[in-house]
Amino acid sequence: MISVPNLLRQLNGNKFIQFGILVALGFFLASCGGSKKTISDATQTRPPTDRNKSDKTTRTSGTVDTIYWTEIDRTKEYETKIEDLELDKRSAYQVALLYPFGLDNNSLEDASDPDSKLGRMVHFYAGTKLALDRLKEEDIVLDVLTLDSESDNFDSKLQQCKNADVIIGPKERGQLSTTAQYGKANEIPVVSPWLSSTKVAKDNPYYIQLKPSLKKHMIKIVDHVKENFSDEQVFLLGRKTKKDLGMMKYIQQVADAKTRGSETKPFKEYFLEEDSLIIGETAYDSIFYTDKTSVFILPNWSFVEDEKFVYNAVRKMSGEKGLNDVVLYGMPILLESDKIQFDLYNNLKMRICRTSYLDRNAPEVKEFRQEYFRLYNDFPSEEVFKGFDMMMFIGRSLKNYGKKFQYFLDTYEASLFQTEYEVLKVFDKKKGDAFEDIQYFQNDHLYILEFEDNHFIKN
């Protein structure tokens, strides 16, 4: 394999356009960093772990209309099962990155635009590279193969990963499903940083999903709402579409389970007409409370299907609420959409459920930003921090636990620059909660971000 020079560290000119040109020359198809030597060592000392905590598990029992919350203590079983696992710890690990650069379909000029698809991936890769440098300083040796998953023949790219100890990516759903099955067949952990899908992960203890599911977002919002407000204050918003009705039904089920069953739906439901949001005199029909806070939950999340609706819903709410006190809960699209401006965040006291939060005033974040600017003459975008955190988490997990690191992730708490990881075992509810019933591993950590003093903070 060919070692890749540090492509990002250019001294003059537009750093990311130069980087894109080098990408086009094929440098992304080579390996980078680390030693080529891989030594099997099954006699390493087992890392310290915390075996005294219980797993908090969400289970669905019977029909989809009933949800139960239970605490299950699997400590003894895990102690026995995990102790039986042979730790395959090594002095170096092979990591395959199937990153969706899409060089066949994207302009090289986009590499300098952090808002473009290629630009976001360039920044994510920049963070990955910085993490590899940091891991090397920690004596964690990773031999990395970087491949463009969205150019040329994907199957041939996947075959190049046959000697990997872990595969990270790809992003496209069909490719990820194929990769997950490849990982299962060859006993290679596959990490998904970008996509959350239960369909990809059936009966596959080699699949690790770092993005919490949509349902986990809804559960987090319901938990926070019920901790801070009474049910009668809450309005659940949506359209009379199949998707919106399904989301609303699930949220009501979750809220009902939290109250141990009620005869009526816990939250009020209010249906919005898209025409009224755009041209109607009113869309909310004076539903706002005058003597207490009106709390709204807007669960729509898709940029493709929902962005226009979400924007119009919050714009209209802000205009109609008057002086009444309103709190709006919603998905990451509220923060990530360019359509939604700061005046809407403030006027609706928005609370957004999201996987990441970056405290730019934290000393370690300031230090990282300064170092990044020194190296690249640019400030790091959020994608840089995401790429850095993900690679640090995977690299340290390999060092601590070896090739079977996924079985130990629920004992490893990792707090990094912009996220925390709480990776738990997911079980097949139809089979049971035995060790052999593990379906996959999923990160459940989410934040509720609240807009205060013109910026978002962790609530």
Strand tally is 21
- Gap from first CA to last CA: 47 Å
User: Low-confidence runs (pLDDT<50, min 5 residues)?
Assistant: 1-80
The 3D shape can be described as globular
What count of domains describes the coordinates?
2
| Rounded mean pLDDT score | 82
Rg result: 23 Å
Stated plainly, the CATH topology of the largest domain is called Rossmann fold
CATH architecture annotation name of the largest domain: 3-Layer(aba) Sandwich
Number of helical elements? 13
Characterize the main sheet.
Answer: 8 strands, mixed
CATH class of the largest domain: Alpha Beta
Strand order within the widest sheet? 1-7-6-8-9-10-19-18
What can you see in these coordinates?
The chain folds into two domains: 15-212 and 363-445, Rossmann fold (3-Layer(aba) Sandwich), CATH 3.40.50; 215-354, Rossmann fold (3-Layer(aba) Sandwich). It has 459 residues and is an alpha/beta fold. Helices cover 35% and strands 20% of the residues. It has helices at 15-24, 75-84, 117-137, 154-159, 173-186, 214-228, 242-258, 274-279, 303-320, 333-336, 342-347, 363-376, 382-401; strands at 31-32, 40-41, 55-60, 67-72, 89-90, 92-99, 141-148, 166-168, 190-192, 207-209, 234-238, 268-271, 294-298, 326-330, 351-354, 414-415, 420-421, 423-427, 438-443, 447-452, 455-458. The model is unreliable at 1-80 (pLDDT under 50). The protein has 13 helices and 21 strands. The protein starts with 14 loop residues before the first helix and ends with a strand. Helix 5 (173-186) links the parallel strand 8 and strand 9 (190-192). The relative contact order is 0.13.
